[in-house]
Amino acid sequence: MQLxxxxxxxxxxxxxxxxxxAFGCSRVVYNDALRARETARMAGLPFVTSAKLSKLVTxxxxxxxxxxxxxxxxxxxxxxxxxxxxxxxxxxxxxxGKRPRMGAPRFKSLKDNRQAVRFTANARWKITTGGDLSLxxxxxxxxxxxxxxxxxxxxxxxxxxxxxRYFASFxxxxxxxxxxxxxAGQVGIDLGLTHFAILSDGTKIDSxxxxxxxxxxxxxxxxxxxxxxxxxxxxTKARIKVARAHAQVADARRExxxxxxxxxxxxxxxxxxxxxxxxxxxxxxxxxxxxxxGWSAFVTMLEYKAARYGRTLVRIGRFExxxxxxxxxxxxxxxxxxxxxxxxxQACTAWLDRDINAAVNVxxxxxxxxxxxxxxxxxxxxxxxxxxxxxxxxxxPTVVGIPSL
Length: 405
What we know:
disordered C terminus, alpha+beta, seven-stranded antiparallel β-sheet, five-stranded mixed β-sheet, elongated, 17 strands
């Protein structure tokens, strides 16, 4: 199984300049190759192969207009061509229905939020004994290693995000079998907005709402950005502040997802979750809250962690009526508005919590043996026994019969 490990990099001034040159050269080669293929397509010529594009890059280095391409590692330029091949392959696969629909490759811009270059083993990059990352024509860059790599990576991708932060990204193969000891825990999860996750055992996990909490700061920084003159250095500084504010929100949300998904995978042998139409919900008035929750990223983490640690993740269809069926008796009494949080089953008279009831039904639909007792908020009316005695206000004993429903 392949996993991606990212570590924060702290390049100095000359190294940032060298990385900027690498980003720029990679972008120019990508755009030149894309332009060559688009020109050939419009002229009705055959598809330009990668080998021909590689020769064009080599020839461009010898010209005065593109001589500065030789200032960066040749591996970076070749990997840029490989990225273009991948973009075309994904586009063609989407046309054939092998993957979700996506657009044709587009030209890269200097103003893109993310810039990246990749070094393979041919570039002879290495991790020094002092813990620095040695990159060709860039130097030894300081890296903060937060954990140990499970195996030796063959490639490293240097990424610069919109906030001006640098990361070293490694794709490595996991080590030996990491299957966790088996446990008897099984849980169904109902994802929501007021509570991020409701478990079938009755546990409710509040939604942190990272974006909502940071809206005041984001609004202030965005207002300051709008007042800066376009093209000025002050506008660039203000843009970075806005990007950093958004990065803090994204990092906090990702950390929350990681901690919760790891906890659920470690404590349960099987986890059931309902597939949600995030794209559809994003077109409603709940769009901001839906994106702030990040359901898709959380379910993706559950999926790969279940595969890594030997757990079972079951997805049930989004058309499963989890909120319409009583988890006690199984009677379906139709949809209910979102304002109804607690409801009473007309068949068994049990009072049910909407979210916990849905989580229990998710577990049942996945075939998990999860106790449904906690889905009930309070018991319904239980008929008294014939011989049970009660007392009137006048003190005279009476026999309590079965109440009429």
